């Protein structure tokens, strides 16, 4: 078993969502390299900590695309859409949210290749922010479409970070990406633009949100068969051990109902406990 305890970048401000996504990407990348370098057989991976993002955020969706399940949500049979069922933190502003997770990925769990999933997530953020900026300016659907295409045509390696800053990211948000990652991301952006150009005009009843989502979904379809090698190689091992989620709880119990007790002063985070049991995945 591989276990990681982490605390992603604070604050919750959306301008830091890219760097939090990058942090998770690097954590998983390091784990995959570690397993290869040490010749490890497939093992369960557990990621736990304060993710500074809820079930509605990009980090949650990214981890789900990588085959991880939230132990607490799985134990209580909550769906990805059930973001209001529980909380684990009351911040300094008095706002409550669910940001503490224990994630589990068992051997053989199918998922998108890491780099493709990462690029898709980042491009999704850029598209969404660009759309929001143009909508705030009162632009029409056709004008938004035109500007998105032009952005793809004009974008270069040297001004990608500048574009991100204009969309609300801070300099700190992108500074940790190495040149190779930025170039790789830029190439993927052009591929996304090629997909988008297939739609010469927006259908009359279709919003820009639907078109951009449709483009992203088309990339999803292309990548469905690109699963991790672990899924294909797990059968080579006579006995692969995984973990079953037996139960999970938050303390104090009131937070499990989405409310923060006023008399709880032990911490501004509710401790999360998960019970796991070993099991054989293949014989």
TrEMBL record:
GO molecular function, one term: 3'-5'-RNA exonuclease activity
Transmembrane segments: none
Protein known as: Endonuclease/exonuclease/phosphatase domain-containing protein
